[in-house]
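Translate structure to sequence.
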């Protein structure tokens, strides 16, 4: 080792390693009153002349750092990240429901594609063209080892092919209905469509949505938790009672003879109820409070001492069970058939043509909300009345008030209008606040009636939220439309199952969209043949716990949608 001097205070040290020599610059510095030696690498040295050799640019420290950075970037480019958590949850949920199994039984290997497309649609509802981008963004494709593209053209071909397989769709509905625990069928809801749907789409005069497009009717059947089991499209102008008869026929063909039909109040007429009684169809529906017989029951409810305190879904009610009857009316229906009127005890001919249950219910929370809303509505109308100044102020106010005009005495004062509240009318309305009447066939108790109506209401809410999607599909091909409807329906099945689980957990403020969004913060990170899950937050762990699903430890690849051994055994 030699230490030649290169100026004052600087020493150069040459160190031999193997057959090579390396030079270092040694300096002394003072830090905090103490002397410290600093060594700086200078480069390789010629063994004979002891002079520094020229540096090779490719091997410089700067170049090595550059190469290392480029390698790091290359590694990052090779890492893929896919949203994993929602896919994992939906798979576990569909297994419980045997959804994938029923799809595979009905459609063979296409069942896996239907399920995957439905999952993607649930994560990003709306246009079908989003399905392929959702499959690319999430882990669905890797989870089920799907190789086929789902771009717009391929998806159109696939959905058209599905729509042509009427027997397969029918088999799927049969499997779902037979495997259900209790069945609730509800009457149809209308929805606009640009598709002919096998000539069922028709223009409906004064349709409730106010749209100048063709309408179809869609009937659903669910289980008692509100999970959809089957659907049917009907012509837009077919009568409600005709759709009921068709659905009864379908359900009985699937092996169920005790379906419970749930209707809305618009269905409840004397003639319709008489038809249900004659056919032996079990049913329930909220009563139309404009009926004279129903008004009488609501007035008697205030005076009765026969009401009981009841609890449903964690909510308290007062319930009075009574009966309402049917008798022939002295008029004909619009179609020329015999009309029927509702009767109560004391009416002439009470129950001559049948009796049904009537549950008169009081909901204190509903009462508070209705009274509050009623007062706000009256105050708003009085404010608007004060702003009127026109040639016929009375007519203007009547148009603004609509049915609420019954609560006011109105007179003109020049171009202004004077309104006074009718206290008797307002008191009468507020006395009925919080009261509603549920009608049912005689074999149904109050708890079953409320549970069945909840199943209809909750499914209808989920269906109504997405039914306008048909307007965006804009396909004139009926088979493509049917195929798309099936994928949407499978998506709706999973959505309603998640809704039911969330309600059961008590976390009603959390939506399905929020749930899936939170879980998709869990990503599967892959590099080469290696993969791992990103950090799982406490919130995500709580969501898995809410659904009774084990928190994933590592990503799975190429899993089946069901136990394939089950497919070898006949079902239903």
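Result:
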């Amino acid at each position: 080792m030699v230490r030649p001097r290169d100026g004052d205070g600087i020493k150069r040290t040459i160190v031999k390693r193997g057959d090579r020599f390396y030079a270092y610059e040694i300096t002394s510095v003072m830090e905090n009153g103490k002397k410290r030696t600093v060594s700086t690498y200078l480069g390789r040295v010629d063994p004979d002349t002891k002079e520094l050799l020229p540096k090779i640019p490719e091997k410089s420290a700067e170049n090595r750092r550059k190469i290392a950075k480029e390698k790091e970037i290359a590694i990052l480019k090779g890492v893929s990240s896919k949203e994993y958590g929602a896919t994992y949850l939906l798979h576990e949920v569909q297994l419980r429901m045997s959804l994938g199994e029923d799809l595979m039984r009905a459609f063979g290997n296409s069942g896996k594609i239907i399920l995957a497309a439905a999952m993607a649609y649930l994560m990003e509802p709306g246009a079908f063209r989003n399905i392929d981008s959702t499959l690319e963004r999430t882990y669905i494709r890797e989870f089920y080892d799907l190789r086929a593209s789902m771009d717009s053209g391929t998806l159109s071909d696939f959905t058209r092919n599905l729509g042509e397989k009427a027997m397969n769709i029918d088999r799927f509905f049969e499997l779902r209905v037979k495997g259900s625990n209790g069945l609730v069928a509800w009457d149809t809801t209308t929805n606009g469509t640009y598709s002919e749907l096998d000539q069922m789409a028709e223009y409906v005069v004064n349709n409730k949505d106010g749209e100048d497009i063709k309408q179809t009717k869609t009937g659903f059947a669910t289980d008692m938790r509100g999970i959809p089991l089957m659907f049917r499209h009907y012509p837009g102008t077919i009568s409600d009672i005709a759709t009921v008869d068709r659905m009864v026929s379908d359900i009985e063909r699937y092996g169920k003879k005790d379906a419970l039909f749930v209707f809305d109040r618009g269905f409840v007429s004397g003639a319709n109820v008489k038809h249900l009684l004659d056919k032996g169809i079990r049913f329930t529906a909220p009563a139309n409070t404009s009926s004279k017989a129903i008004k009488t029951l609501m007035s008697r409810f205030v005076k009765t001492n026969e009401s009981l305190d009841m609890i449903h879904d964690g909510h308290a009610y007062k319930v009075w069970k009574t009966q309402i009857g049917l008798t022939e009316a002295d008029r004909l229906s619009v179609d020329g058939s015999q009309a029927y009127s509702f009767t109560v005890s004391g009416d002439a001919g009470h129950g001559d043509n049948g009796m049904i249950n009537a549950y008169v219910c009081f909901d204190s929370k509903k009462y508070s909300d209705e009274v509050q809303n009623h007062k706000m509505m009256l105050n708003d109308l009085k404010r608007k009345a004060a702003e009127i100044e026109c040639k016929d102020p009375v007519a203007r106010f009547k148009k603004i008030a609509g049915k609420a005009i019954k609560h006011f005495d109105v007179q003109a004062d020049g171009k202004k209008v004077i309104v006074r509240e009718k206290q008797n009318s307002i008191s009468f309305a507020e006395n009925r606040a919080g009261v509603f009447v549920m009608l049912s066939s005689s074999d149904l108790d109050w708890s079953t009636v409320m549970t069945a109506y909840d199943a209809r209401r909750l499914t209808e809410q989920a269906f109504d939220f997405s039914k306008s999607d048909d307007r965006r599909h804009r396909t004139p091909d009926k088979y493509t439309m049917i195929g798309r409807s099936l994928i949407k329906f499978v998506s709706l099945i999973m959505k309603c199952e998640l809704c039911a689980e969330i309600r059961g957990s008590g976390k009603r403020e959390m939506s399905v969209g929020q749930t899936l969004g939170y879980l998709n913060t869990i990503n599967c990170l892959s590099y080469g043949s290696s993969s791992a899950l990103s950090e799982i937050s406490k919130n995500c762990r709580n969501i898995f716990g809410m659904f009774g699903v084990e928190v994933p430890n590592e990503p799975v690849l190429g899993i089946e949608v069901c136990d394939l051994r089950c497919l070898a055994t006949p079902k239903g």
